[in-house]
Specification:
Length: 484
């Protein structure tokens, strides 16, 4: 720790710089924010006239009429500008609109400015300012071990957040040529993934499954056992009951201690669910930029797309594939591409390894969101309902799953052993009907004979209890020994 005199001297210098900049800050022009008037509430959309705010700006809707100047009977409702048509602005509320009346005031939040001499030190200053009018939500070490909503408000009744500062939700994307390549294997603690679908640090994968096949349990296993500095969990559009159960029964105290949980349950407005996914990603980016290796678990990407569909259809965007408008398929890569490795090198950035659950409606692998997600992710893990119903957990379908970076992060002997095991599993799948009716006769196919003989060991290798951890090195050794 620095001596007290040095710390006081540094504090005095910061205050001196700030006081010298005050006249310059006062001389900056402060544009007046044009207030608007609420004209119509249609379903999920608020329509206002007179609002001069860009898309993404946050406004306060006061329940009183213009004549009463905000002395309404309901507290202000936060809303975000999601579109406009001429002089009419379309806003999406983040709270309950019950009680709003025609003529209510719509007040955009002011955009504070930074004087030029403080622009370079604004990020380190406690009174940091930003030029955008979008959301600024709390980020920092104080979020670890906490459960918050999509607005950064605590949900765990553990008091107010400390050691956090508001930061903008919109960040400049990393140049694709500046990112570090995926070259380091990541231990997830799950045997089937470590051995056959080895994950690289900074990879983005999808967990494709229908409802009730164990994807939340698999996420909890990875949250407890994955070798990561920080874990960010985004529960987007899930049942409210599942939030507490996931934290207490699946994540448990061991996983929660190094985790941040952002919860936006299914009964929240669509904009809140959308912001929950962006907030969870922004928290992961915050820790990555400080050199941490982050594991981002988002459940689910489909609920995020559904929230965007509700917003887009409400403001008049035409539907396309199965009711999803084009903006849904444009938003998915924008969200997913924010994760991955940082710039590394001299910048000292870390990584974000992300797992996104994707719900396949009716177990249909050709669901439009599932099909779009497969094209933008670095691999997919398919959970089978048939395996789950037979008591096989985790219900991971190896033949339909793939990790696109395994060849870059796994040694060649492991790759050959994994390929051999896939061949044996494929043989068993093709001969399943013969085996069930007793028509199989040994000696006709040597490969099938080996697969039948090893079937019990193969099944035992792929199954794992949720409270059991399987280290990466041990998984490699077991795999090579099994198929030797």
């Amino acid at each position: 720790m620095k001596p007290l005199g040095d710390r006081l001297g540094q504090r005095e210098q910061r205050w001196s710089r700030w006081m010298q900049a005050l006249p310059e800050l006062a001389a900056l022009p402060q544009p007046l924010a044009g207030e608007g008037v609420l004209l119509r509430v249609t379903g999920l959309v608020l329509e206002a006239a007179g609002v001069r705010a860009p898309v993404g700006a946050v406004c306060e809707v006061h329940g009183g009429t213009v004549a009463s100047h905000g002395a309404g009977s309901v507290p202000p409702v936060l809303a975000e500008v999601v579109g406009f048509n001429g002089d009419r602005a379309f806003l999406m509320p983040t709270g309950e609109v019950h009680g709003l009346a025609s003529g209510a005031r719509v007040v955009p939040r002011a955009a504070p400015q930074v004087p030029p001499r403080l622009a370079s030190t604004a990020s380190a200053h406690p009174w940091r300012r930003s030029e955008d009018r979008g959301l600024h939500l709390p980020m920092g070490e104080g979020l670890l071990g906490r459960v918050v909503d999509s607005q950064g408000r605590p949900l765990d009744r553990l008091g107010e957040l400390t050691r956090v500062l508001p930061e903008p939700m919109v960040r400049r994307p990393i140049n694709a040529m500046d990112r570090d390549p995926v070259r380091t294997p990541l231990d997830t603690g799950v045997r089937a993934i470590n051995a056959l679908l080895t994950v690289g640090r900074g990879q983005r994968l999808g967990l494709f499954a229908g409802t009730g096949v164990g994807k939340s349990v698999l996420l909890g296993m990875m949250a407890r056992y994955t070798a990561a500095d920080v874990i960010v969990v985004g529960l987007i559009g899930e049942r409210g009951r599942e939030v507490k159960e996931f934290i207490e029964d699946i994540l448990e105290a061991e996983g929660l201690a190094r985790s941040v949980v952002v919860a936006a349950p299914a009964d929240a407005p669509p904009l809140v669910r959308l912001q929950g996914a962006h907030y969870a990603t922004a928290i992961a980016e915050h820790f990555r930029d400080r050199g941490k290796h982050v594991l981002l678990l988002m459940d689910s990407l489909t609920r995020y797309a559904m929230a965007q569909r509700e917003i887009a259809l409400a403001i008049g965007e035409p539907p396309a594939t199965r009711g999803y408008p084009p903006s849904c398929f444009a938003k998915l890569p924008q969200l997913v591409e924010r994760s991955g490795n940082g710039m590394g090198g001299a910048s000292g950035q870390g990584s974000i390894t992300a797992f996104y659950t994707v719900l396949t409606e009716g177990d249909d692998p050709q669901d439009p969101i599932a099909d779009a997600a497969r094209g933008i992710l670095d691999g997919h893990i398919v959970l089978s309902r048939e395996l789950a119903e037979s008591g096989h957990f985790p219900a991971l379908d190896v033949e339909r799953s793939i990790s696109r970076v395994m060849t870059a992060v796994a040694p060649r002997p492991q790759q050959q052993a994994a390929r051999r095991m896939r061949q044996l599993l494929a043989k068993l799948t093709k001969a399943r009907d013969l085996l069930q009716i007793g028509a199989y006769q040994a000696g006709h196919d040597s490969e099938l004979d080996i697969a039948v003989r090893l079937a019990p060991q193969l099944g035992a290798f792929l199954q794992q209890d949720m409270h059991e951890r399987a280290p990466l090195a041990e998984c490699r050794a077991q795999l090579q020994s099994l198929v030797a």
